[in-house]
Write a structure and sequence with these properties.
It is a single chain. With about 450 residues, the protein is mainly α. It folds into 3 domains: about 160 residues, 3-Layer(aba) Sandwich (Rossmann fold); about 130 residues, no CATH class; about 80 residues, Tyrosyl-Transfer RNA Synthetase (Orthogonal Bundle). Helix content is about 65%, strand content about 5%. The strands form 2 sheets. The protein has a 3-stranded parallel β-sheet. Helix 1 links the parallel strand 1 and strand 2. Helix 2 packs across helix 3 and helix 7 runs antiparallel to helix 8. The longest helix is centred in the C-terminal third of the chain and has 30 residues. The chain is globular. It binds tryptophan. Tryptophan (TRP) binds next to strand 1 and helix 15. The site of tryptophan has 14 residues, from strand 1 and helix 15.
Length: about 450
């Protein structure tokens, strides 16, 4: 690959967890290391402010995690002598630029962002679930007063929520009174009607359940649940649960990127919508102020399907919340134990039963880490090997692959990391400050 004139690359990961998993490695980090080793100037950021969009209730973990994530970068092969490793919040230019970009970003672009919509839906889903279980518990206790006390005590330690809680407890009380039966039954009926929570939301939007599902409207009559009550409950909870910062997530990410005016941004596939907004915002900035401060950057997303979307040990998406991850920092024994219980072809009971490697987590990992995977797959399909053998062989190759990373990580102490981050901060700020000069100038700010 011949190098472009602008060799700068910026990327980052959120410090929501203290450990990166091999899905993070395959989806992004591995690319960073390859780019570094082929002569690009890497800026590897730990996005601690982004982590706060979902972790604002326990912010103390965010900074501890940030150091651990930085260790994983270095363990994976990012060399702090060549590449810049830094923490987002250490370079205050990100905050100033985020604020200025928030003025030029149309609200509609943010509301349409798929990741934002998903988060809102997830939140709503968990709210509905929480409300269901709470209300059904309380209805069993059969006391509206108790309900009010409960709700108020949940929010008692949060001053900002106190007044919202009063309103909420009123509507809950009303809902509870009008319910008379229990929510569990309602939830069960929803399931019978095959109505997901997303659809329920649409129904609430239309206020007419019978137009979508006669069975649903019947269920609602049966449980005496008013659509209006449910809507009120959800709205008032949602209003206090989604922080402004979450909507601005892609604006902050754009600030992170544009500050370094990079040639490209290597990220996992889930980040593609954010990268697109970034180039749109850059174009809008240039147009508004009639400048050419920003050039479009490239989206560097792994093409290899297997690497871009590495499944978890149970074949679902690899995610801490599913408890199906192999972490970069796992020991060989931990890795062996995890692989031992990994999902394989469910219909392959005996060695001689044919396997289906496409749906088997162990085979998926073999494809990535074993030079011999084609033979191993063929034997699996032909019923010439059992899953235990595949698991053992996988454990060996995976532990061998990650051994150097684990050794590097073990050798990193906290003081060394702080030195690296201090140095990274200075190198990052030098570039960021220069961009901010051009930005302020373009906007006529002195
Ligand atoms: N949103 C990214 C993630 O969830 C993290 C991130 C923040 C990032 N700022 C960035 C990635 C800038 C690339 C460029 O992993």
């Amino acid at each position: 690959m011949s190098l472009p004139t602008n060799r700068r690359i910026l990327s980052g990961m959120r410090s929501t967890n203290p450990k990166l998993h091999i899905g993070n490695y395959e989806g992004a980090l591995r690319n960073w290391v390859e780019l570094q080793n082929s002569g690009f100037e890497m800026f590897c950021m730990v996005a601690d402010w982004h982590a706060l969009t979902t972790m604002f209730e326990n912010p103390q973990d965010v900074s501890v995690n940030a150091r651990e994530v930085a260790k994983d970068y270095i363990a994976a092969g990012i060399d702090p002598a060549k590449s810049v490793v830094f923490i987002q919040s250490h370079v205050k230019e990100h905050a100033e630029f985020h604020l200025l970009l928030s003025m030029v970003t149309p609200l509609g672009w943010l509301e349409r962002t798929p990741t934002y919509k998903e988060k809102v839906l997830d939140l709503r889903k968990s709210l509905v679930q929480k409300l269901y279980s709470r209300i059904s518990e309380l209805i069993e206790a059969d006391s509206a007063t108790k309900l009010r006390e409960e709700i108020e005590s949940i929010h008692a330690d949060d001053g900002g929520l106190a007044s919202a809680a009063v309103g909420l407890s009123d509507s809950l009380t009303n809902a509870a009174l009008s319910l008379q039966h229990d929510f569990t039954r309602f939830e069960q009926l929803l399931r019978e009607c095959e109505i997901g929570f997303g659809k329920l939301d649409t129904i609430l939007e239309r206020k007419d359940p019978s137009s979508v599902s006669p069975r649903l409207s019947q269920a609602m009559v049966e449980t005496s649940l008013g659509i209006h009550e449910l809507r009120t409950i959800l709205d008032s909870e949602q209003e206090v649960s989604i922080p402004y910062g979450l909507l601005g997530y892609p604006v902050l990410q754009t600030a992170d990127i544009l500050l370094y005016r990079p040639h490209g941004v290597p990220v996992g596939r889930d980040q593609a919508p954010h990268l697109e907004i970034g180039n749109d915002i850059a174009r809008r900035f240039n147009n508004l102020y009639n400048v050419e401060v920003f050039e479009p950057y490239k989206y560097m997303i792994p093409e290899d399907e297997n690497r871009a979307k590495l499944p978890g040990l149970d074949m679902r998406k690899m995610s801490k919340s599913y408890d199906n991850c192999i972490y970069l920092s796992d020991t060989p024994d931990e890795t062996a134990a995890k692989i031992k219980s990994a999902f394989t072809t469910p219909t392959k009971m005996r060695k001689t039963d044919p396997g289906i490697p496409e749906g088997c987590a162990v085979c998926q990992y073999l494809k990535l880490y074993s030079p011999d995977w084609e033979r191993q797959w063929a034997e699996d399909v032909a019923g010439e090997r059992g899953c235990m053998q595949s698991k053992q062989e996988l454990t060996e190759v995976i532990n061998e692959f990650f051994r150097p990373m684990r050794e590097r990580r073990a050798a990193l102490d906290d003081a060394t990391i702080e030195d690296i981050l201090r140095d990274g901060e200075a190198r990052a700020r030098a570039v960021a400050a220069e961009t901010m000069e051009s930005v302020r100038q373009a906007m006529g700010l002195r």
